[in-house]
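Sanity check record (used in CI):
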Amino acid sequence: MNIKFKVVCITALLSTSSAAFATIVEFQTSQGSFQVNLFDQTTPITVKNFLRYVDQGMYSDSIIHRSLPNSVLQGGGYKYEGNIPLDKIATYTPIKNEPKWSNLRGTIAMAKLPREPNSATSQWYFNVTDNSTSLDPGNGGYTVFGQVTSEQGMAVIDKISNLERCENVPIINYTAEQCNDVDIDPDGSNLIAVNSIVIIDSDPTTAENLAPKANTLIDTQPKPVPNPVPDESSSGSMFGGGLFLFAALARRFKQVQR
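Expected output for Peptidyl-prolyl cis-trans isomerase:
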């Protein structure tokens, strides 16, 4: 092996290592960008899994597919690639649950199947409010693996959360009344796109000064809430029959992942 080839190999390995341990990522969405500090040291399995999807570009051109008012924003499940119906993101093997931290406002956590604690794959959700009493106890606890780094970042999340919705899907340039008009031609520009998620700081120790709250409610009785919990459900379609933008999707989307 010549020296030039060795240098190339070492550079590639260092680059891969840096990406694998990245701790700050930026969500670049059609409504603005915000940064998230990942909990590399305390939820390593989940962070590694999340970054695997990031490194492969699997979240690029995905959408925010669920918004529950004053509750959560959910994404990481479906991509818009210029066509309707949308494409489901291919997933890797489910990962082990790491329910160390509480579902406080501004945190990001993994979605999973109901009654299956170790079933998280690609989908994540942001806590728009303090969901600790409803989400910390159930399903073995949810893995909170990072938090938004600033109030400016939360302003972007709040902006998306406050948009009009068609059966819980956040949209722009349409009203709730128009959601029932099946004659409107589907247009992906009405979806809230996650254009990309990029690594901006590969130092794995930047979470040391963060102070997430421990989840102390695992396996206690969850507080009843009016909105569904952030689970992946196999018991129905995400979209209703008359929804304008998603009429073609109702037959394809058989699962809801939260």
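The CA atoms of residues 113 and 232 lie 4 Å apart. If this sentence no longer matches the regenerated tokens, the check is flagged for review.
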